[in-house]
Amino acid sequence: MLRRQLLLLLCGLLIVGMALPDKQTRAQEGCSVDLMLVLDGSGSIQPGDFETMKDFVYELANSFTVGPSDANIGIIQFSNTAELYLPLSSDGDRVNASIENMTQFGDRTNIAAAIDLAQEQFVTRRENIPHVIIVLTDGLHNMDGNPIASADIARAQGTSILGIAVGSVDITELIDISGGAENVITVGSFDGLDVILDILLNNTCAIVTLPGGSPPPTAVSSDTTPEPTPTGDDTAAATPVATAAATQAPLQVAMGGRATRIAFASDRDGDSEIFVINADGSNLTQLTNNTADDDKPSWSKDGRRIAFESNVDGDYEIYVMDADGSNLTQLTNNNFEDYGPSFSPDGSQIAYHSTQTGNIDIYVMNADGSSPQRITSNVTAIDRSPSWSPDGSQLIYFSDSSGGRELYTIDIQTQALTRLTENDVYDGQPDWSLNGTQVVFASTRQGTNPDIYIMRIDGTNVVRITDDPATDDDPVWSPDGRQIVFESTSAGNYDIWIVNADGTGLTQLTTDPARDWSADWMWIPQD
Q1: Which of 115, 289, 381, 397 is deepest in the core (most CB within 10 A)?
Q2: Using CA atoms, how far apart are residues 479 and 234, in angstroms rounded to an integer?
Q3: Are the CB atoms for 120 and 90 separated by under 8 Å?
């Protein structure tokens, strides 16, 4: 069975570390949706992996309250054809039995037939209830029919589609099926499905809160290809620019009704301290208060702890504290400089960069400060600002090892390195999206001062999100991946700003005469 300790985000409720006995329902109310689960049963999936997928689907289904006025769930398995295992049902026991009794078809992959069959189930269903299809696959469509065309029809009829890609499958097709990279979640293996359950649940129920059940705007179109345009020094290609609308309010409803807060650093008391503020700008709270510089706050994914850097003992070390500023603990203690902590997705480790070897390299340690491990080993280069992949297996960071400052990913276990960008400008401060498909970062590729960009995790489809003569830097995704928080000098000094992931809704969050920077964004825990 899947591991039982999950951070479950469902319809605005956070359940932390809930112990789940086998086959026990953990449903939450308030998520009324017609949901079709479309599952790959092709021969490329090993029998053991198929059983793991069934366990995942069981936990997913039992995370909803299933009933006549709540969630209705149906199940389709596809291989050569698509078979309706369960029409949309308001009977939770029937849903569970269908999952438990499902046997694998084997053979080929017909995603088009599965989407067509799923969409048919909504024809005579409840009025004014959002329709959602979740497609889980480890491969590409290889039969007659066009799954992208089928998905376009479904989405034109008001259906939202979320995709789950397992393994090394090319996700381009699933991005097109789902209507955007932000609607696709990637996971390295079937054993890793449990780590994305919280993301999937939150996005499913966030759709319910949007007007008409429509998905939010797409930040990256699958057919967007940057076209080179000569610049003054011909060092960078022109990049598509997302539509900006500075007067439009942020799309706060995309949070599914959940309250969120943003941690940031500010020198408003004379030196740098850590503050938190609600995402609507209310409830500003100062967490640290000393004569040193405290900087680079990083939330744990359960929203209960904040790691940060501080030079309170003379050089920069990594510290952690509770979200209210209590229980301050020093994690590193040496004569070097340790910077930029980043909590792993499961909260068990912290990545950071350090001068322990003379230059700056990336390190990972346990969340209690034990067992530090050097991840990068560049003799002269600077490697900094690590951010975790959603499954915790890789880090993305920026480095000047090639001369410029470029983005790289590294596998923590094998230390296999992949270069994502290649130019002579600054690409830095990356943050990996929760669905694993995109990265947001800052770059000077089209100006002297950095702007905010989004690209796919393979380095393609770069989209410019801000277009500002001032400095826009250090971007971080919102907890649901639909907005971005960053620091900007647009108003004269450094302040915290928010923008939707498509470039609309640009909003200034802080307006203090002092400087505010280094933001991180997380859900407020629900006890």
Answers
A1: 115
A2: 37
A3: no
Torsion over CA: 187, 192, 198, 201 (sign): positive
Query: What are the Cα distances from residue 39, in Å, to 83, 90, 106, 110, 427?
Result: 10, 20, 12, 11, 38
* Eight-class DSSP state of 53: H
Sign of the Cα torsion 101, 106, 111, 113 reads negative
The residue among 46, 35, 45 whose CA lies nearest residue 11 is 35
Reported confidence tier of residue 322, pLDDT bands at 50, 70, 90: very high
Q: Reduced to 3 states, what is the DSSP secondary structure of residue 347?
A: coil
Calpha distance 212→476 (Å, rounded):
28
Tokens encoding 493: 């000094």
Q: DSSP readout, 196-247?
A: GHHHHHHHHHHHHHSGGGPPPPPSS-TT--------SSS-S----BPPPBTT
CA R_g for the chain: 23
Task: Determine if the pTM surpasses 0.70.
Answer: no
Is the model's pLDDT at 236 over the cut of 60? no
- Between 239 and 460, name the one with better pLDDT: 460
**Residues 122, 131 contacting (CB under 8 angstroms):** yes
Three-state secondary structure call for residue 421: coil
| Cβ neighbours of 466 (radius 10 Å) | 24
Question: What's the one-letter identity of residue 134?
Answer: I
Q: What interhelical angle do 47-61 and 92-100 show, nearest 10?
A: 170
Whether the Cβ atoms of residue 133 and residue 119 lie closer than 8 Å to each other? yes
Kindly give the pairing relationship between strand 34-40 and strand 131-137. Answer: parallel
Place of tokens 């034109």: 156
